[in-house]
Amino acid sequence: MLIETIESIALQQTESFNIDIIVVSQTPEIQTCRLSDNQELPLQVFIRPAHETISSLRNFGVTQAKGEYLAFLDADVYLSANWAEQMLNELRANDGRIIVSAQQICHDNAPPLEKIRTFLSNVEIDKNVAFLPGRNLFMTRDAFHKIGFFPEHLVTCEDYYFTDKAAKLGQLFYTSAATYRHIGEDKEYKAMFDKEIWRGQSNIQSLSGRKVPLRELPSFFVPPAILILIIIAGILLIIGITKLAMLALALALLPVVVYSLRLQNIAKSEVAFAKVVLFYAVYFPARAIGTLVGVFKTIKIKQS
Q1: Which parts form a coiled-coil structure per UniProt (predicted)?
Q2: What is this structure's pTM?
Q3: Residue 221 pLDDT more than 70?
């Protein structure tokens, strides 16, 4: 996936500017891999200690960069050929913008889970948003230093924390003028369940040092509430209190149904409603487990 990401960078339309690529990894084998067939592509690879967070890797990459503009990419995205050019245009189009990001797309034959993830990323398009995922972020070097670096104390949620700080200084603009495919997007529910446990581990830590807006509160309270209600329903069934068990289970399913109806409206029936319900039935408990486990230890995940 990293090779595909670099290939998409090599295909960028760059008549009026130059691009340098800095790969920061914790996998020593990358140094011996042929990452690109483009011999003219300026590319540097740095290997960092295994204990460092994603934020640490990104912050280190900035220390090695020379350009006036910075683009942060995950190692599993494929950019449209006009991505760099359009990011530059969109950032310059409005002095109030501090970070810009492109729209996520997927193939028409993508599995339902990947489509669901893509629809969720595109709830708001061609407008200012409250948060941007870290898969593709474009900004000036000066803006990066004003925001204050990525939060190295967080294992996950670093993009939310970083762009939340940025939103206090300027606009976060999500544009359809350029696109990207998330090659490593979730495609199977079991893999998603494991990843969501990992992703949820920094939920509590991400609250430190910032004012939490009302729109974020459901993401912190709904998942654990659902998990608790499911556990209560199970206990009540075991001891024979069936009616209360059904009530607890119904209350647990209520937010799943509400969120599913909202997403189904966004997806415009392109994904079966049963698949949407399954998504949230997996997502909420996994996030709750991740939040709970993350309080006590750092979770490792094997990338496939």
Answers
A1: none
A2: 0.86
A3: yes
